[in-house]
User: What shape does this take?
Amino acid sequence: MTENDFSLEERVMTPAEVKEALKRYERKYGMTSEEFYEKWRKGQTYHVAESVEWVSIFESYQAMNGTDSRNGKPV
Amino acid sequence: MTIATYADYKKHVRSLIVEYGRRGLLRGASPIVFLEARGIPLDYGGLIKATDPPLKFRDGASLRVLEVVQVSNATVERLRYTYHYERANGYFFRYEHEETDDVVRKPEYHMHAVLNLPHFNAPPVNLEIMLQLIAANFYSQDLYSKQIIGQEIHLRV
Assistant: This one.
């Protein structure tokens, strides 16, 4: 494939990739996903350009692990 | 195409991206990743994203895409989305839909242009509208596009 060729790849994100994605956000913005999530719920994450991505992936991570930060308890 | 199920919706997203690839706007390997979304049964919806890497355009621009979608009774609900288009030189705009408690500072449907703040109220959009908007403004050969490409901005808020 040359640089200008186009191809589409599809796959399901693995649990390890989800964790790695969260770690990338955590390193970039200097807070844990849990801290970010609490701030997002309080409207304090306006500086985070990827907030919709981060919060959505974090919620998926919680769903995969059977926890839910809406009440802070295992579902 | 008729979208009756989440599987149909995923096909729709796939065909949209392939269409713009075939038209020569996109280049390289574009990955779409699927993930379950909290509170949505797997057959009815989920998270769809193209962010790592984003979709890449022929001129070095990129489009980050993430949607949390639910399809039921042949109705598509985009519960959240972010579409972030960025030129190679850093100019960007981003349409988003997310929950909010402050409808003035952060309307539920909003957009950002050049800066992450403010959140400008915006109409709901989808991937098809975003790709049309990007193609018409940045990849047409007409005078309108030529008046956009190459513009410089030097400003302080």
